[in-house]
Amino acid sequence: MKGNRTVNRAGVNFRTVAGRCILLSCLFFPCGEVVAQGSQTAATSQPQPSAQAALPAALPTHQTIPALLLSDIHFEPFWDPGKVSQLAAAPVSAWKAILAAPPSADRQQRFAALQQTCHTRGEDTSYPLLESSLQAMRTHAAGAKFATVSGDLIAHAFPCKYSALFPHSSPEDYRAFVEKTLTYVMEELSSTLPGMPVYTALGNNDSDCDDYRLDAHSDFLSDTGREVTKGFPLSERQGALETFAAGGYYSISLPAPVGHARLLVLNDLFMSSHYATCAGKADTTAADAQLAWLQQQLTEARRNKEKIWVMGHIPPGVDVHATVIRMRDVCGGQSPEMFLSSEKMAGELVEFSDVVELAIFAHTHMDEAGILKAEDGIQRPGSAKGVAVKMVSSISPINGNAPSFTVARIDPSSAALVDYRVFAASNQTGVDAAWHEEYDYARTYHEAAFSASSVSKLIAGFEADSGAKTEASRAYIRNFFVGNASPLLGLVWPQYVCSLSNHSVEGFRSCVCSAAR
Fold first, then answer.
1. What is the band of 485 on the pLDDT scale with cuts at 50, 70, 90?
2. Measuring CA to CA, how many Å separate 302 from each of 200, 246, 249, 410, 488?
3. What is residue 32's predicted lDDT score, i.e. its pLDDT?
4. What is the DSSP string of 419-475?
5. What is residue 292's three-state secondary structure?
């Protein structure tokens, strides 16, 4: 791309947009007063749906069941550095008492110094915020039949913070502390939501060596798998233990009253464009094995006429934020930045869209929706429908967002996601926080279900609205960054919308550059 040549439907090129990078970064990172004001006024900044708004013909509530969707907890055990030695020495059963004790006198100063040492951009989930979140889930997700956790249970910069406090520790010591932290979070969820199955995926931070680094067939995966699968039915637990030990992925039947449906949980860290082994080497072996397993599972589901949910942490498709910030000249031949190293996983889900009812991802910390569909114009048996994608927003407020979780309504007869509500905290600390409904999908977008057809219709409306003027576009932008009704997403609205339904390099390029041809 040269000069100011138009490269997208709104007549704004990537280099022009990249000139707004400081503002754009506010979509994903704290930017002072803009975000602070938005998060503190979350309860009042979002217009609430009118009581007279026309509702879609959705299933009555009594014909659906609730489910809890949450992600990116990023629990911060280093929030009070004076307690970390106690945590390291104690069993997980003693952690709650240690964390609940009054904070150290110098907690704030020591934690600020630790954050500065590790160049951390914001604060993750402290003990008070975790407790506030759990109590809000107990209140607003009462009666939920199951919960999904889409990865990243532990804090950012975990290795740096641990090493700063334990400079002479061994890799085994570090792995033990990571495993304790993961176990504590999972046990807190289980004790807060007794009797509710909790299905957990690993994220790029959930590793015993470093961010985006992990070894397959490791002791860490074996140990963590025992905790993840602890409450599984005996008939399914052994198989889940074996695949989790191999690569952190598993299959589990969705619980009654959902009928004839399974959840496939992926560890797509191995598919990430940033992935390396703990030794820092590139290796596709684990990703290839997991994709072969995924294809086998989907083939069996099609044969058995089962419905499938797929959950991972890192979504397939284009990382628009990185693409713009790095000034990728997409229409001049450069490739956009991609979340995953290949399009194979997305391709498998599209190929089996007659089987896959829903895909759940996270990672961006934002509340998002999308569709995976065939992009070559060729309609194949089973792939015509497409797959609706729900991106779950984060508990962690590290980006300046309000902590949040999602309560879904599921049709148990079809495993379809009928509706969902997002709940958000009134502050980022959890101290005296009030949790309120941020928005309701069905009321906001007047759709009867979160299905491939309804999401496709919604995105088509966005594509026709390059200036983000319609009620639906404004609502999406308002709800994207939970707790901060900022219009900044509008700066890259056409490019962002292209990413919602074009998961491949060429599909995204064609969409973004169509006006230039």
1. confident
2. 24, 25, 20, 21, 42
3. 37
4. EEEEEEESSSS-TT--EEEEEEHHHHHT-S---HHHHHHHHHHHHT-TT--SHHHHH
5. helix
What pLDDT, in 10s, does the model give residues 137-159?
999 999 999 999 999 999 999 99
198-200/250-253 β-pairing: unpaired
Contact in structure between 417 and 390 (CB atoms under 8 Å): yes
What is the amino acid identity at position 218?
S
Cα separations in angstroms, 303 against 159, 344, 351, 354:
45, 21, 14, 11
Task: With cut-offs at 50, 70 and 90, classify the pLDDT of residue 57.
Answer: low
Euclidean distance between CA atoms 229 and 445, whole angstroms = 36
Please enumerate in sequence order all residues whose Cβ is within 8 A of that of 265, keeping only pairs 6 or more positions apart, or say none: 199, 200, 201, 249, 250, 251, 252, 311, 312
Phi and psi dihedrals of 119, rounded to 5? 55, 45
pLDDT band at 488, cuts 50/70/90?
confident
Predicted structure pTM score: 0.90
Taking Cα atoms as reference points, which of 29, 129, 124 lies closest to residue 78?
124
**409: which residues sit within 8 A by CB, 6+ positions away?**
59, 61, 64, 65, 66, 67, 417, 418, 419, 420
- Distance, in Å, from the CA atom of 388 to the CA atom of 353, rounded to the nearest integer, reads 9
16, amino acid identity = T
Cα→Cα distances 317→124, 336, 342, 393, Å: 26, 10, 9, 17
Q: Sorting pLDDT into bands at 50, 70 and 90, what band is 54?
A: very low
As a whole number of angstroms, the distance between CA 266 and CA 263 comes to 10
Helices and strands, counts by H and E, the chain:
20, 12
Contacts (Cβ under 8 Å, ≥6 apart) of 119: 157
- The amino acid present at 135, given as its one-letter code, is Q
The percent of the chain in helix, strand and coil, each rounded to the nearest 5, is 40, 15, 45
Q: At a CB cut-off of 8 Å and minimum separation 6, what does 367 contact?
A: 391, 392, 393, 404, 406, 422, 438, 479, 480, 481, 482
Structural domains in the chain plus CATH codes: 14-45+62-516 (3.60.21.10)
User: 25-29, 78-82, 405-409, 434-438: which has the minimum mean pLDDT?
Assistant: 25-29
d(CA 511, CA 515): 8
